[in-house]
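queue> pop job 88
queue> type: inverse folding (structure -> sequence)
queue> payload:
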């Protein structure tokens, strides 16, 4: 726990060392600010990310679990007794790091008290060092999740602002959703009390998850059959800040869209960074289509979850 007294500095040092040694590959992005329901929303474009190295393991072989035995050059610190911190190997944001469980636990299972306690320890430490952190969790087939081993991801807010020049002032979307119902998809937001206990954090999360399951049933959204009592029957994203916790049930990872010439492109895949107010694309056609027609962002957000009550009226 002692290493968390200066977590922002530790993350920066670890990231620079891993980048210098080639243990991680940073992918620069271009950025444009779009507007959705009156909120500034980042659109980022990383053409090089489309060429990210792919696994050369034989088809049908057991997938590699990057969190089972993390690479030494990416490992940051133990977070006793149940978690550790590790760098993202292919980041598009500086100092992108991950909180992973030491033992294998399913990404599709409900988060436990110690998961949220560890996550909020990271958020609190950044705040105590005069910085802000955004955390997100992807769970289920429609959430943008890519690894089955449980992990929560973190992006320093200052790093998320890299490249933004003038124009609308961008800030973390999740903090604004607590006071708004104007977004195109349904979400549940809870204020996080100062110095919240693990039990309080877990209760807030479980209450939002229960509401998401209930509205999924009411809207005839497919709830998949679970094989364990710990498993969530829905796909969802969870956004975490020092102030709020936001849960967004998902019904689609993202749609295809039409380009300026009418060609169908995509799909545009979204994960929990949408609750931070960001969206990443990997090719020029998607970048141009969204940057030149802001209404397409609303169209995308309309399709990824349960439509908000406002959109149904």
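queue> result:
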């Amino acid at each position: 726990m002692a290493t968390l007294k200066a977590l922002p500095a530790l993350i920066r040092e670890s990231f620079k060392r891993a980048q210098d040694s080639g243990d991680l590959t940073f992918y620069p992005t271009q950025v444009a600010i779009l507007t959705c329901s009156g909120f500034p929303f980042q659109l980022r474009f990383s053409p090089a990310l489309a060429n990210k190295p792919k696994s050369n393991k034989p088809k049908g072989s057991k997938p590699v679990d990057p969190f089972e035995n993390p690479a030494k050059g990416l490992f940051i610190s133990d977070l006793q007794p149940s978690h550790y911190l590790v760098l993202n190997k292919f980041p598009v944001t500086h100092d992108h790091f991950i909180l992973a469980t030491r033992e294998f636990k399913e990404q599709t299972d409900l988060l436990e008290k110690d998961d949220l306690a560890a996550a909020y320890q990271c958020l609190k430490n950044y705040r105590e060092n005069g910085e802000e952190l955004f955390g997100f969790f992807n769970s289920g087939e429609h959430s943008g999740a890519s690894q089955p081993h449980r992990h929560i991801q973190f992006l320093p807010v200052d790093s998320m602002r890299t490249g933004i020049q003038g124009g609308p002032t961008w800030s973390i979307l999740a903090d604004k959703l607590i006071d708004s119902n104007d977004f195109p998809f349904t979400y549940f937001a809870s204020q996080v009390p100062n110095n919240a206990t693990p039990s309080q954090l877990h209760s807030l999360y479980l209450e939002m998850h229960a509401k998401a399951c209930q509205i999924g049933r009411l809207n005839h959204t497919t709830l998949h059959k679970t094989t364990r009592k710990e498993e969530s029957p829905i796909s969802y994203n969870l956004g975490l800040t020092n102030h709020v916790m936001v849960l967004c049930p998902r019904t689609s990872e993202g749609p295809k869209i039409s380009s300026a010439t009418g060609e169908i492109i995509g799909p545009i895949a979204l994960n929990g960074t949408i609750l931070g107010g960001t969206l990443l694309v990997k090719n020029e056609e998607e970048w141009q289509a969204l940057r030149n027609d802001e209404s397409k962002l609303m169209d995308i957000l309309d399709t990824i979850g349960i439509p908000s009550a406002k959109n149904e009226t």
